[in-house]
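B., you asked whether I could sanity-check this one before it goes into the benchmark set. Here's the sequence:
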Amino acid sequence: MKPEHVKAVQQSWALLDPIPDLVAELFYTNLFARSPAMRLLFNDDLGVQGGRLMQMFGTAVRNLDNRALLVPTLRALGRRHQQYGVTDAHYEAYGEALLRTLAQGLGTAFTPEVKDAWTDVFSDIRVLMVDAPEAIAV
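And here's what the prediction gave me:
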């Protein structure tokens, strides 16, 4: 991850952090519009799940420049997601829903540079999570 991308992601996330319920609602609306079958992966109430989502996003974004914490956290999350039936194809829908949610939530602050930063960072996160099942937990 490029340092300027980390900074752009962290700064843009700070604008959304105060409205977690709205961001989570937008995200799941966008995700299920993109891929209705993914709704079956979620057993919990989406309000509860949305809280978990926002907590995880916040943790990941805050620690983008702390790979010693970020990498094991995302690998563990990736392993859990695999157990739930999440595949690499699901991450594509997830990424698209994330970008749409950011565009809606940030409005004019969702500049091409911010979009590029989120795309780059999400790509790195996706690799860590998708490759996680192959990684040996020590």
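One thing to flag: The mean pLDDT is 88. Otherwise nothing jumped out at me.
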